[in-house]
């Protein structure tokens, strides 16, 4: 698929792939409109859109259905999709890869937390034995039918077991066949800068403002050698803040928040011009009577 080819080419070229978080058709359309070179389906954002915290409460079928919706809107914009732990053991993870691949993802991300998982920037995360996650990675790599669909292995071990253990796990996941490595929540600028040079595969960095990782710039991450940067909470965090503000304004008696898009602006962002053009081209000619 074109989206998979694009993501592979971006990584091979050394171009930093910046993927904002998406979770519904509107956010996917806006990311495409702003011409980002990828999008990231955030499990946390999808959970929040269902009124749930990021505690592993979303199901395999809910997430796979959301993948299909997002790839349909994004078209040839590569979608990197969070799949948590694979929603269970090895056979569940294999089924997840099959569903995500059919739905058109360019890359699927799995993590080594115990099921049910937690947001990577919450406390008290538990990780499985590295050899157990290695076998899961081996199984999902074997299960995919298109080698261009990348498998991203995430480790959450740094928080509880330290930096060296996280790097050792990451290297073992490379040996198991992972295409991209994601060490979640490095705690210092030195750790952030060191990770790409310690891993023999492309690396991914997670931008989480006010999380457990210090602030960074895209320039810094490019210089360090990261291949992919995701911003999972950007859209749903901004949406929550804007909606909450608008609701408070209306509750206080003001019917115009001053920042709400007009109907024309909103619908143009999700394809109004295209659908109008299709309607005009194929309209039935009016016949006089």
Automatic annotation (TrEMBL):
Which Pfam families does the entry link to?
PEP_mutase
Q: Where are the transmembrane segments?
A: none
Which UniProt keywords are given for this protein, alphabetically ordered?
Transferase
Highest taxon above the source species:
Bacteria
Q: Which InterPro entries match?
A: ICL/PEPM, Isocitrate_lyase_ph_CS, Pyrv/PenolPyrv_kinase-like_dom, Pyrv_kinase-like_dom_sf
EC number(s) on file: 2.7.8.23
Family annotation (Gene3D superfamilies): Phosphoenolpyruvate-binding domains
Gene Ontology molecular function terms on file: carboxyvinyl-carboxyphosphonate phosphorylmutase activity; oxo-acid-lyase activity
Q: Which PROSITE patterns match?
A: ISOCITRATE_LYASE
What's the name of the protein?
Carboxyvinyl-carboxyphosphonate phosphorylmutase
**What enzyme class is recorded for this protein?**
transferase
